[in-house]
Amino acid sequence: MRPPLTGDWPGLLADAHRQLMEQTYGPMPEGYVLPPELAPLGYEHGPALAKLVQRHLDRLAARGR
Predict the structure, then answer these.
(1) Which of 3, 16, 24, 41 has the most CB atoms less than 10 A away?
(2) Burial class (CB within 10 angstroms; exposed 0-12, middle 13-18, buried 19+) of 18
(3) DSSP code for 38
(4) Phi and psi torsions of 62, nearest 5°
């Protein structure tokens, strides 16, 4: 499906993307941005994503010790 990008579509698409990013980054640590290898997970929601990110951060921290 290819929606016409006239009328209200651009605003609706921008609002939907903004809402998705707020849902994705809301449970993340302040200032955290998904690294490129995890960016596709931004389309997942909820506690499972937050746990995955925390495990990723924990692994990175363990490597730095």
Answers:
(1) 24
(2) exposed
(3) T
(4) -65, -35
Q: What is the pLDDT of residue 37?
A: 74
Rounded Cα gap, residues 54 and 23, in angstroms: 16
Contact between 17 and 42 (Cβ < 8 Å): no
The span from the CA of 58 to the CA of 35, in Å, is 14
Q: Which amino acid is at 23?
A: Q
Which residue shows structure tokens 């909820």? 46
Tokens 């707020």 label which residue? 22
Q: How far apart, in whole angstroms, are the C-alpha atoms of residue 56 and residue 32? A: 12
